[in-house]
Sequence to fold (273 residues):
Amino acid sequence: MRDWSERHRLAGRRVGFVPTMGALHEGHLALVDEARRHSDVVVVSVFVNPLQFDVRADFDRYPRPIDDDLRACADAGVDAVYAPTAAAMYPPGFQTHVEPGPLAERLEGEHRPGHFRGVTTVVAKLFAAVRPHVAVFGQKDAQQLAVVRRMALDLDLGIEIVGMPTVREPDGLALSSRNRRLGPEQRAAAVVVSRALRSIEESLRQGTTDATVLVRRAAEVIDAEPLARLEHVEIVDPDTFEPVHTVDRPSLALAAVWFGEVRLIDNLLLSTG
Fold:
């Protein structure tokens, strides 16, 4: 992978990169299109990273349709697919990790211990192999995007990190590889996540700025769906991910909701203008 990238770099071409865990969908392909706008050649990685799963069963159940992913990449004009094995990424004796800072301690970091340590470690290794000029991440994983941006800045990686708006189904559900694990009734119920976030936006538009009230209203929307189990809804500063008490500046509403054994996350940027 590194040799391939170096040849393109020496030829003066910009290398774009989209890291994924596979089970590709239209959201991933939108990231590929965005990477193409920033570069001359595009690499997609497909690697289900064991380090970022805090529950082994969740890792085992994660979909791995590699043949479908390769076809999707070919159809999208991807120039190279990097699909290392876990043994290649973490050979015997592997012991070095990238430790994220306070930005990774709340929300996803709190509910999924070790998750962001796994993310930063694998992304650093993928960056070292692919050697991109630019890497594109989806904003659905907003905290992950912020943590990766912080890592790239703090470690002077010289890689431009681009965030891409969340791609949604017509009914508002954020596209996710986990969606394919939902049963038909769960899939129909899952739209409640984006509906709850939109309820925050609507209440804010009507003049409610108290974050506690806004969060309570969103939680009520989710609790009204029998198949949904709320993990958390919060409103935070989009840069620090610290809680916001009064929404009088741009803020980020985030939600994590369980449908059976499937955990879905979503977020919505709140504007006060």
In short: The mean pLDDT is 96. The chain is about 40% helix and 20% strand. The first strand starts at residue 15 and ends at 20.
